[in-house]
């Protein structure tokens, strides 16, 4: 079992019945950088608090000064994640829209996120808490070669009995789809091991 991103699978030394198994058929996978900024604001300083999961910012809103991809209203979804007197927000920056911006400093991103939340929610003042996470390979870019990526995954599973793939390359990027992909792979692993056990007994 490995948790290697698909882009790094080529570096894994895999053998099949003692013979090295070449993975040179795997296509190049492009990943996008992503920064995530966690912020909190005092409830009295959020003049237009919105109910719901969060907001996505359409790319055309860049002309109106928005630079973030979207924000999750984390304390709305999970009230116990933050003290009762603050709103907790999770904001995403980067992707295809602003690759370079994903690599910006925490201070610069704090200014950008605060500006966008001011437009969206009417926040006032500075956040009372800030935490910044950066991923150089935040998520895969579904592009023109996506079909070849799926074909390569299918080939690995076909040619390597006992190999099962799960992740956001198959089925979608959302957390729900990634979990579904993992559950499906787990079921396949259990079935494979049960069949292997039955064959060894017989």
UniProtKB/TrEMBL annotation:
<protein>
    <submittedName>
        <fullName>Variant 3, Acyl-coenzyme A oxidase 2</fullName>
    </submittedName>
</protein>
<feature type="domain" description="Amine oxidase">
    <location>
        <begin position="4"/>
        <end position="190"/>
    </location>
</feature>
<dbReference type="GO" id="GO:0016491">
    <property type="term" value="F:oxidoreductase activity"/>
</dbReference>
<dbReference type="Pfam" id="PF01593">
    <property type="entry name" value="Amino_oxidase"/>
</dbReference>
<dbReference type="InterPro" id="IPR002937">
    <property type="entry name" value="Amino_oxidase"/>
</dbReference>
<dbReference type="InterPro" id="IPR050464">
    <property type="entry name" value="Zeta_carotene_desat/Oxidored"/>
</dbReference>
<dbReference type="GO" id="GO:0009534">
    <property type="term" value="C:chloroplast thylakoid"/>
</dbReference>
């Amino acid at each position: 079992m490995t948790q290697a991103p698909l882009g790094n699978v080529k570096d894994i030394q895999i053998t099949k019945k003692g013979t090295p198994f070449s993975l040179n058929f795997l296509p190049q996978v492009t990943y996008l950088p992503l920064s995530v900024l966690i912020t909190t604001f005092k409830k009295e300083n959020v003049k237009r608090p919105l109910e719901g999961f969060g907001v996505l910012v359409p790319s055309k809103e860049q002309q109106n000064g928005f630079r973030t991809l979207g924000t999750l209203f984390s304390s709305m979804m999970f009230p116990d994640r933050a003290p009762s007197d603050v709103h907790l927000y999770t904001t995403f920056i980067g992707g295809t829209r602003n690759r370079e911006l994903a690599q910006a400093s925490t201070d610069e991103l704090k200014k950008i996120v605060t500006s966008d939340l001011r437009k969206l929610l009417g926040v006032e003042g500075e956040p009372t808490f800030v935490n910044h996470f950066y991923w150089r390979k935040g998520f895969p870019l579904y592009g023109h070669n996506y079909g070849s990526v799926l074909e390569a995954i299918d080939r690995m599973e076909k040619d390597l009995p006992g190999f099962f793939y799960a992740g956001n390359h198959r089925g979608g990027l959302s957390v729900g789809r990634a979990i579904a992909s993992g559950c499906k792979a787990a079921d396949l692993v259990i079935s494979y091991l049960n069949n292997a056990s039955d064959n060894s007994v017989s």
